[in-house]
Amino acid sequence: MLKWTKKQARDYLVDYHMINTNHHYTINDVFNRLKSIQYDPLNVVGTNPELVLQSRVHNFKTSILYDALYKQRYLIDAWDKQMCIYKTEDFQYFNPARKDRAEAEMSSAKQHLNLEFAHIIDDVYQEIKENGPILSSQINIGETKKHQWGNVKASSITLSYLFHKGVIGIESRNNTQKKYDLIERIYPDIVDSNPFTSKQELIAYYLLRRIQSMGLAWNKNSIAFSGLYISKKLTRSKYLKVLLEKGLIEQIEIEDIIEPFYIPNDALNQLTGINNNISILAPLDNMLWDRTLVKEIFDFDYTWEVYTPSNRRKYGYYVLPILRGSDLIGRVEFDQQRNHDPLKVLNIWWEPNIKQTKQLELDFNKALKKFAKYLEVEEAQL
Fold it and tell me: What CATH code is carried by the domain that includes residue 124?
């Protein structure tokens, strides 16, 4: 068993996540290693996937991701940990998960919304078949019910059901608006047959994939293991043994932490070495999925406060972590980016142990320049 200091664990994680290295990674490199990136539609200075990629991909622009999803189509919007983006070639491996997820959509609509939609599934499907690609707002079939979060259309719930089942897909986006079409029209060559011979094989695959997405994991309950199949600790314990026996993961011991950790078995062969640059991270970055692990390894307590009432926020609405080398040294809040206005910094909070030197100012300005370049706007002036 490998034994690491926390510094070694930080260095490994940052390198594994392809941040602050001298290597020029592509978007394909990132998805080959991390498998999935969590999707979130909130956009202050980019959506979460765009923010994840700008910290890793050389000369990343938002158009690169859009082209990969909706023109080249080697990436796809689909469900993994939550709503995610992953490689289209992985679609078949979620065949059983799609069936389970679709059933959960129907059960949830009935239980939480008191809404039945089984009787309109064929009608919604036919509407898309005849008129797709089509916006969800253009489909009005079935009833509309008032809910504590607003009005809910039966046709919208049906679209979600058909999407999670894999019958329809997202043909394109206009900001947060999605255009749906039949999956076979969007991806004519997509494979959707179940590749697994047993549920045990499926769970082992799913757990390994999640460890690959994080790079370093321990067997503690957290949102990092949300989703189907692997949310229970007992299940993970069983399949961690399976993965260890098959040589697909390695167990790691980290100083002053009793709990063992696990990494993909080939992870150490992928490392290139990190530099002391500064990068600005996404709020739902894969490296930050397990907040307790981040607190333990990086001594950095991060909460994304967008859903926290304003009077209870410690920092701000949309605050992003600042990484220097392999240390999380602070957080930054940007103003809402509008068109090609100059990037505007609202607040910076450095960690208590960080000395605000001239070199730090120079390095952070360099990071802001890179960040503004990704947004294709003028850099921020501090």
Answer: 1.10.10
pLDDT band at 233 (very low <50, low <70, confident <90, very high): very high
Contacts of 305 (CB under 8 A, 6+ apart): 313, 314, 315, 316, 317, 319
Q: Looking at the domain assignment, is residue 257 inside a domain?
A: no
CA dist., res. 330 & res. 349, Å (int): 5
**Predicted pLDDT at 381:** 59
Return phi, psi of residue 207, to 5°.
-70, -45
Q: Does a structural domain hold residue 295?
A: yes
Q: Is 331 helix (H, G, I), strand (E, B) or coil?
A: strand
Residue 298's domain comprises 278-375
- 232: pLDDT strictly greater than 90: yes
> How many structural domains are present in the chain?
2
78 backbone dihedrals φ, ψ, rounded to 5°: -165, 175
Q: What is the mean pLDDT of residues 343-351?
A: 96
Q: How far apart are CA 308 and CA 329, in angstroms?
A: 23
243 burial level (CB within 10 Å; 0-12, 13-18, 19+): buried
Q: Note the pLDDT of residue 143.
A: 82
Q: What is the residue-averaged pLDDT of the chain?
A: 94
Domain boundary among 165, 186, 207: 186
355 within a domain of the structure (yes/no): yes
- For residue 169, being part of any structural domain is answered with yes
